[in-house]
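Tutorial handout. Part one gives the primary structure; part two gives the three-dimensional structure as tokens.
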Amino acid sequence: MPLRGRELIQEIDDSNCQTPAIWWLGHSGFVLKYRTTIFYVDPCLCSDEAPLRAADIAHASLVLCTHAHGHHLDPGTVAGILAASRRAKLVIPKGAAEHVHSLGISYHRMVTTDSGLRVEYLDDRIYSVPSAHNQLDWTPLGGYPYLGYLVRFGNYTIYHAGDGVPYPGLADRLRPYNITVALLPISGRKPADAPGNFEIAEAAQLAEDAGAQWLVPMHYGMFQSSAGHVGKFVDHLLGQRPAQRFKVFECGEKWEVPAD
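Part two.
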């Protein structure tokens, strides 16, 4: 049974992660832990339904936000974690720095990045690739406003796509990283040309094209799995792509990446 609150914090603290461990926090939010390093990616803990309170998170090494939209860079969540985790910094696309500063977060708590750049934390590395939502929207000064992060833990790589849709060359950008786990949004686009995310079949195709060993769906419900979306995802993977390994989370659930 997934844990909540301080019990979940304790589980994260006590986990001895010789392979990466992942917890889903709802929506696009995850905790990634490898050995003693703890990263929070796109946490949005702004509701009583959330499994954690930001003010209780005193162990974060880094907080990674893929772009400036509120459910990915939630002001209250980010400020709460940074206040409790005094040594943690916030990793953001470089074009988001002014917006984040306007929320009351000082520049010295930020690490800005862009496609092709690398962030290092002890022995771990975070690479960035552009995401399209629905366009890449690159500018000379701001770079790419929507990023996906490739977190390299030892021989494991976890890809968090943020928000995004397929675009030419994305799989080619990802393939060299030998992705172990791809965290991909599957909420789709309604109408088809509206800003949105991968359709289920598109996410599965990207995982295959990029060579991801595992596919994890996200961005299909805030803190509870949408049975309809999950059922369609599972049916598609089992029926159309039986060779693709996948994991579907419950909110607050821990999963250790298999060593094979």
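Part three, for discussion. DSSP finds six helices and 14 strands in the chain. The mean pLDDT is 95.
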